Amino acid sequence: MKQSPRVLGRPRHDENAKPTKDIVLETATRLFIKEGYKNISMDDVAKACNVTKATIYYYYPTKGELYTSALIAMMDRIKLSILQILEQPKPFKERLQQLVEVHLSATIDIDMKNFMKEATINLSESQLRQVQASENDMYQTIERTMQVEMENGTIRKGNAKFFAHNFMALMTVGYLKDGDGKPLLGAVDKTAKEVTNFFWLSVQNNH
Amino acid sequence: MKQSPRVLGRPRHDENAKPTKDIVLETATRLFIKEGYKNISMDDVAKACNVTKATIYYYYPTKGELYTSALIAMMDRIKLSILQILEQPKPFKERLQQLVEVHLSATIDIDMKNFMKEATINLSESQLRQVQASENDMYQTIERTMQVEMENGTIRKGNAKFFAHNFMALMTVGYLKDGDGKPLLGAVDKTAKEVTNFFWLSVQNNH
Amino acid sequence: MKQSPRVLGRPRHDENAKPTKDIVLETATRLFIKEGYKNISMDDVAKACNVTKATIYYYYPTKGELYTSALIAMMDRIKLSILQILEQPKPFKERLQQLVEVHLSATIDIDMKNFMKEATINLSESQLRQVQASENDMYQTIERTMQVEMENGTIRKGNAKFFAHNFMALMTVGYLKDGDGKPLLGAVDKTAKEVTNFFWLSVQNNH
Amino acid sequence: MKQSPRVLGRPRHDENAKPTKDIVLETATRLFIKEGYKNISMDDVAKACNVTKATIYYYYPTKGELYTSALIAMMDRIKLSILQILEQPKPFKERLQQLVEVHLSATIDIDMKNFMKEATINLSESQLRQVQASENDMYQTIERTMQVEMENGTIRKGNAKFFAHNFMALMTVGYLKDGDGKPLLGAVDKTAKEVTNFFWLSVQNNH
DNA sequence: TATGAATGAGACTTCATTCAT
DNA sequence: TATGAATGAAGTCTCATTCAT
Question: Which GO terms describe its molecular function (chains A, B, C, D) (predicted)?
């Protein structure tokens, strides 16, 4: 049962080790993404980090707080990655395609709706507000670019928020597997092309 | 303590009353859709049905079984409703729009990905297979029509399954609310139009 | 470790057995009186009742609720016993003395201040209100008699509530043990006499 | 996370600052009196002192030891204050009244029975003995004076220990509040008078 | 057909205590 | 002198499930 008997008290400091707090957050994020809030217990997180539950609580006062932090950290990372890709001096369509490709490569299905639903049900109001703000931020990064490209005339005029959410929704379809568990549309790059193309056909400007 | 004293023994049979088994299934479906598998306890279901937990177990041997039945019943109903709409002698685009409209009117966000995720995590393999079969059935109803319309030349050639999932994904964006909790695109009919249009621009055949 | 392996489900009904709910309440009351709220765990109560924790929760939704019920039941019993003694057609002083005697005979030190302090700290507001109401009831039983005897001229005029609380405070001194653990004033009847006398000297009417 | 970033290492020594050990003891005493042993955690004490838990442990090896020290310190202080008041060259009744007044002014209800109960349950035997010795000391201070006044003929002959405990028991009734939270007998001086008078009527010598 | 009573496992959380620095 | 990091044990509560009636 005992995995690796740990000692009480402060562990001797290992110079190039990641701080436990970060390990916990990363591990928790991964687990929550894969299995959701209610299916992951604090003990699961602890075991995956090879520390005890109490250690988790030393850094995060409640499970809700840990989930909140995990979600926000995740969204921040996604937002950054989106930003970096969208800021490149490339045709818009190519940037979108790269966006899809990068995200499909992450292999974990990052389905925002799911997270937000679990957040709504399980978090406190203040935690929920934080998460919502973070989600909003993330989407706005895309929205703003959509807006710019509308003004450029690259894509047709429309509701930028609607476009952004549609894009993300289509993106998650890219994870779709067929009966045998193989990606429906083939390799990641091909899938990304198909997904982007589907979106593009809808938003491109035909004058 | 006693909340609503129920009579002991077998209740007198009310001719127009729905069988308990059906009440349980409907109630459970509603609750599971709204809050998910792990957030709804057998007691929650029992209370909402105004019976005891033991009664639920009389009809459904496990929670997983109840969830399975609820999901399948729901998908069957959706499938039927999809079928009825898609079979009508109307232009394809109009049928799609009606599809969206009907589903947005149901007000509960029926997000398949969510259900399937929870199913994957919480159900037994055999239960999961049943649910997957049912999901497949439901999508195939749309896929087949897509296929037909591709052959008709109404929409462009492409992967019908991919199209079907894209359509459903875009549909759930229709539930999107802005910061104030108001639908992003206005009333249901307007939203349905926008959503359908977005999809249509992507799939229409331009020869 | 296992005390007596119990079976799942509903136990066969034993005709002349006390209902579990009552057993729980009585046991809990005894334990809480002896050790206080925080020192008794739900598991302690369960073990003392030879049932599982879950059974306790089946009857009492929270520990606070169990404590509340226990306190109220106890105070009700005390109030009743007080009432019965005070209603007798005997000189007031004799009734008081019997009161002390009966309560010292119960051997457990029923120190109201203690219970009320723990209640204040650990109960919810609504629970606290219930307990306070019950405490008030109990004291008023004595107060009312004090009032009557003041009007009769048996005891001097004064604040009846103050008198009642003083009486109870002096009563708990009766439990006092010396260094060897022996009652300071000897046997219960002698102690009761001393305590009553102390109170009486203070309240008797000398015209 | 960090609430008030404290500087690392040994803090510069502030000449007029109280030693940490004393601060801890005083703070702990206050908290334990108000909420009791089990309701105050070492972390509570630490936070209230604005130091960390480990610091508390640096000065007091266990929670029981801290409680023991706190109780003893408190009783010592009380004993001293009692002594100073009782040693004055004033009529005994006036001294008693001042005793009540001083203690009611401290506003915190110092209910010995409570502390001794918690001590009995939670302390080790050796700790308990220390506390009992301290309690005994405190009461003996009063007892001795009672003894003297009995011999003087100021008060009637009786069990001095019993008298002392009765006096303290009546004193705590002085904290009594009515339903609105207002002191039952009015301002502190008036209350002290009433309480003393009640005691005095019982013990005074009428020859 | 339906219920009331009970359980065992596991969830979240708290807390006294330890130890390297 | 004081701290930050960590633990193990225990506490409150929830929940799917079982069984006699």
Answer: DNA binding
Segment 2-41 of chain A within 8 Å of chain B by CB:
35-36, 38-39
CA dihedral A88, A91, A97, A98 (to 10 degrees): -20
Output the CA torsion D19→D21→D25→D26 (10° steps): 10
> Is the CB of C108 inside 8 Å of chain D's CB atoms?
no
Asked whether residue C162, judged by its CB, lies under 7 Å from any atom of the DNA or RNA strand E, the reply is: no
- Residue at token pair 């001797």: A12
Of chain C, the percentage scoring pLDDT greater than 90 comes to 81
Which domains are assigned to chain B? 64-203 (1.10.357.10)
Give C18-28 pLDDT, tens digit per residue.
899 999 999 99
pLDDT of residue D88: 96
Q: Are C and D neighbours with ≥3 CB pairs closer than 8 A?
A: yes
How many angstroms separate the CA atoms of D137 and D142, rounded? 9
Backbone φ, ψ for residue B36 (5° rounding): 90, 165
Contact C162 D184 (CB under 8 A): yes
Q: How high is the pLDDT of residue D110?
A: 83
pLDDT band at B169 (very low <50, low <70, confident <90, very high): very high
Strand partners, D138: none
Mean pLDDT over residues D179-189, rounded? 88
Q: Is the pLDDT of residue A15 over 70?
A: no
Which CA distances in Å does C68 have to A29, C9, C77, D114?
42, 28, 14, 19
How far: D57 CA to E19 C1' (Å)? 12
- Which residues contact residue B21 at a Cβ distance below 8 angstroms, ignoring those fewer than 6 apart? B59
**Radius of gyration, CA atoms only, chain A:** 20
What local confidence, expressed as pLDDT, does residue A13 receive? Answer: 60
**Which residues neighbour A152 within 8 Å (Cβ) at sequence distance 6 or greater?**
none
Closest CA to C67 of D38, C75, C20: C75
CA atoms within 13 A on the CB side of A153: 2
Per the CB < 8 A criterion, the answer to whether A116 and B177 are in contact is no
The verdict on B125 touching A (C-beta cutoff 8 Å) is no
Please tell me what DSSP assigns to residue A183.
B
- Give the nucleotide at minimum CA-to-C1' distance from D2: F4
Question: What count of other Cβ atoms lies within 10 Å of the Cβ of residue B21?
Answer: 14
Q: Quick one: which of D173, D108, D110 has its CA closest to C162?
A: D173
Amino acid, single-letter form, for residue C191: T
Per-residue model confidence as pLDDT tens digits over A130-172: 999 999 999 999 999 999 999 999 999 999 999 999 999 999 9
**Amino acid found at D21:** K
Choose among C111, C121, C201: nearest Cβ to D39.
C121
For strand E, which nucleotides have at least one atom less than 7 Å from a protein CB? Answer: 1-21
- Taken as a whole, chain B contains a residue count of 207
Q: What share of chain C is helix, strand, coil (3-state, %, to 5)?
A: 65, 0, 30
